[in-house]
Amino acid sequence: MATLAQPAGPFALGTFSAPDGVPFPGLLSRDRVLDLGGALDWAPSGLRAVLERWEETLPVLHALADDDALDWRPLDGLRVHAPLEPRQIFQSGANYRQHVIDLEVAHRSPDDPRTVEEARAEIAAIMDRRAAEDLPYVFIGLPSTIAGPYDDVVLPSWAKKPDWELELAAVIARPAYRISADEALGYVAGYTIANDLTDRATVFRRDMPAIGTDWLRCKNAPGFTPLGPWIVPAESIADPGDLRVTLKLNGETMQDESTKDMLFGVARLVSYISQTSRLLPGDLVLTGSPAGNGIHWGRLLRDGDVMEGSITGLGVQRTRCVEETP
């Protein structure tokens, strides 16, 4: 299934296939797709291989996008897969100011003497101090959660409170280790859309409350990270800190917020992660989800729901939820 929403810039990158064909890395330009496995003289096997040679390949991609004589295929009729298979996924939690305020207010103790307004004001002040003085909160996800941007999302039978979390994802271009925030954006090849699904019922371990969150259980079911549809080069996105993140559930807008609301922007996240871990080409850095999750609305995912997620300049993903069959 293809989408009519066009990415920003002259081209984007993705993974495509004919209906029953083998997936191939492709260059998308003006509703047409070029198989990079044949167009590049070193025949990459997948999009991650393109990212591993990003600096030398980017000018070539520009030239290919302008060449009408090549063997282009119409996008319509091709299957769109997740754009790549990352080796590592780094996920930022509690990174949108308004989202954290909403969650903190919603989970106040019944004995809290403050009014809602007083609580919001105090939590907002804490968030502002955190953005100025503290460190991001980052955990690790599994590559096996990646699914295509139009694939069905299977809701596991054990997931009692499945929820959506639409996020901007940065795609790493070259190895990064202990880099500064000032240089971090130079290590980003581009951006894509991720929906980081979460089962709210299993976020916390009830049997071992002292341990805290259980990210394995609540976030890492197969297909819990629909990704794409494409990777848009960073040079085509003027400011990743000023994009609109919108998720609709069955046509109704649930999330609609600017990335301006992030406590820690892409550069600070990438730099922070690199102080501990070595980022590799094709790795994903998920930047957190804005306010408007299902837990906020009291409406969690169920069989038949359709999620439509969009971010400025990055296209649209559309996924349908289905119950797990015995």
Automatic annotation (TrEMBL):
The keyword Cell division does not apply. InterPro entries: FAH, Fumarylacetoacetase-like_C, Fumarylacetoacetase_C_sf. One of its GO terms (molecular function) is metal ion binding. Keywords: Hydrolase, Metal-binding. GO terms for biological process: small molecule metabolic process. Gene3D superfamilies: Fumarylacetoacetase-like, C-terminal domain (3.90.850.10). The keyword Metal-binding applies. Residues 89-320 form the Fumarylacetoacetase-like C-terminal domain. It comes from the Bacteria. Belongs to the FAH family. PANTHER family: FUMARYLACETOACETATE HYDROLASE DOMAIN-CONTAINING PROTEIN 2A (PTHR42796:SF4), FUMARYLACETOACETATE HYDROLASE DOMAIN-CONTAINING PROTEIN 2A-RELATED (PTHR42796). This is Fumarylacetoacetate hydrolase family protein.
